[in-house]
């Protein structure tokens, strides 16, 4: 007799906690990729389209005691070599109400750029991952990893 009551209690708790979460949160950031080539130099551009009122954090932050920075990771390949690190637009530096500390972040449509040098003349793909955290002034979503693909066309001979 006790087992059905416990099962019913557990199911009721699950329903209440699921209902309390509400509908699925719309993702406030969409990523797109573009490529610019000039001879052996290739610029890989990852653009974040961020909903109004939201932001993602910069590549480096003043402290590791708060939000997670945005990180772009590129899969190694024999088709290219990374040249330097990822460049970002100048981030906004503000006191973040979620973490009660000074942070750097981007809003609207920031473009993150990685320069690579092609090692041959054939077309290739660059596979990457961007890990980021999106927040607004009252909440943060859990960190997300998004796969990115950059399509680099064959070099013009």
Characterization of this structure:
The protein has 157 residues and is mostly beta strands. Helices cover 13% and strands 47% of the residues. It is built from one helix and eleven strands; from the N terminus they run H-E-E-E-E-E-E-E-E-E-E-E. It has one helix spanning 2-21, and strands spanning 29-38, 41-50, 55-57, 71-74, 80-87, 92-96, 101-106, 111-118, 124-132, 134-135, 144-152. Strands 1-2-8-5 form a four-stranded antiparallel beta sheet, with no helix packed on it. A hairpin with a 2-residue loop joins strand 1 and strand 2. The longest helix has 20 residues, at 2-21. The termini are far apart. 20% of the residues are buried. Residues 1-22 have low confidence and may be disordered.
Task: Describe how the helices and strands are arranged.
Blueprint: H1 2-21, E1 29-38, E2 41-50, E3 55-57, E4 71-74, E5 80-87, E6 92-96, E7 101-106, E8 111-118, E9 124-132, E10 134-135, E11 144-152
Antiparallel strand pairs: 1-2, 2-8, 3-7, 3-10, 4-9, 5-8, 6-7, 9-11
């Amino acid at each position: 007799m006790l087992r059905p009551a416990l099962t019913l209690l557990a199911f009721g708790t699950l329903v209440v906690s699921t209902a309390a979460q509400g509908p699925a949160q719309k993702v406030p950031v969409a990523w797109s990729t573009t490529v610019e080539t000039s001879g052996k130099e290739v610029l890989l551009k990852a653009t974040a389209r961020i909903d109004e009122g939201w932001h993602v954090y910069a590549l480096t932050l003043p402290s590791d005691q708060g939000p997670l920075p945005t990180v772009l990771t590129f899969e190694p390949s024999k088709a290219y070599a990374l040249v330097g690190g990822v460049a970002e637009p100048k981030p906004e530096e503000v006191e973040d109400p979620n973490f009660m500390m000074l942070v750097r972040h981007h809003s609207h449509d920031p473009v993150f750029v990685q320069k690579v040098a092609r090692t041959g003349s054939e077309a290739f793909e660059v596979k990457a991952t961007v890990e980021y955290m999106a927040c607004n002034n009252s909440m943060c979503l859990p960190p997300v990893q998004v796969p990115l693909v950059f399509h680099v066309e064959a070099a013009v001979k």
